[in-house]
Amino acid sequence: MLFVTNRAINEEKNGNPNRNISFYLDNTESEQSVYYSRRDGEGRYTEIGSANFHQELRDSSYKQILLYIHGFSNLPEPHIFPRAAKLQELFDAKEANGVQVVPMIWPCDNDASILGDYWDDQKAADASAFAFARVLEKFMAWRADSEPCIKRINLIAHSMGNRVLRQTLAAWRKYDRPGGLPLIFRNTFLMAADIVNESLERGKAGEGICHASRNVLVYYASDDLALRASKASNLKNKVASRRLGHSGPEDMSTVPGNVYAIDCDNFNTRYDTPTGHSYFLDNDAGESGVVFNHMLEAIQSGRVPTGDDFKERQIILT
After folding, report:
1. Sign of the dihedral defined by the CA atoms of residues 186, 206, 144, 135, in that order
2. Is 114 a residue whose pLDDT tops 70?
């Protein structure tokens, strides 16, 4: 599995490609260096360099790419890679060579305090923006070189990964794309997003997500216990707004027309008991879930499945 990361590694920063690397988990500083790498097995990683990374993506038999930005308090093992592998397994079961999952790994904290992790991870999420903006700029160069790659790129951001995405696009526009963000993503899936629910409104910090995406799908559930705790935690900094993954956009009339709000309240705890926060994978029987199937259809068609409950870009999944 290919991946990119700005987590600190135990090896020298400026090593040669095709070398073994290992994560320095006790160092949670957000590196400005980015390591383009491959997971060869549990705990076994090879840095291959950006040129080889993009060439492998180009040569891959997969038709589309799904970048995956994980949530807070997630470590490479046993959280991020197994979840990415499960996503890959589900996609492969639905369509051979359809979607290739590529994790983007940022430095979550490695201590035992969940509350301490939350504040440290918010800082790491913001600081990761500069590194991942460089990653997106390289993707644009890769798509436009002498042998242009026409594979479509999709992105899923889970929980605090939405903060990483929001800040990344803001930094990318400020430093590299002052004329406006390119339409780089076919679909952007904002899953249980741990950002304020006004974020996507015009003029707000997350508006760039809408500019960079053909479709923006916001999956939310009012009984997501993790986001209830997040709202309470953010009162420390006098942020009282609901989270986007808790209520959906505050006012659909104030967000761009490519934003779809998808209510998952009817089933989220069925897939993630009792928290109801990670509900985008499979059920207890290993079968692809309601949200996964919805995402898959959007990726395959390029259009958002609306169903019978569609009204003003608001969808209820059951």
Report:
1. negative
2. no
Query: Does 222 fall in a domain?
Result: yes
Q: What is the pLDDT of residues 215-241, one digit of tens each?
A: 999 999 999 988 876 655 554 555 557
Domain range for 115 is 59-95+110-127+146-316
CB 272 within 8 A of CB 289: no
Q: Number of structural domains, the chain?
A: 1
- Which residues does 156 contact at the CB level (< 8 Å), separation at least 6? 66, 67, 68, 69, 188, 189, 191, 280, 295
- Give residues with Cβ within 8 angstroms of 291, minimum separation 6: 191, 219, 262, 264, 271, 279, 280, 317
Domain-embedded: residue 73: yes
Please give the average per-residue pLDDT across 199-223, as a whole number.
96
Give the C-alpha separation, 308 to 107, whole Å: 41
Contact 318, 289 (CB under 8 A): no
Task: Note the pLDDT tens digit of each residue in 174-201.
Answer: 999 999 999 999 999 999 999 999 999 9
- Please, which residues have CB within 8 angstroms of residue 208's CB and are 6 or more apart in sequence? 166, 169, 170, 172, 173, 181
Helix residue spans in 17-80 (DSSP H):
50-59
Q: pTM (2 decimals)?
A: 0.94
The Cα 121–Cα 48 span in angstroms is: 27
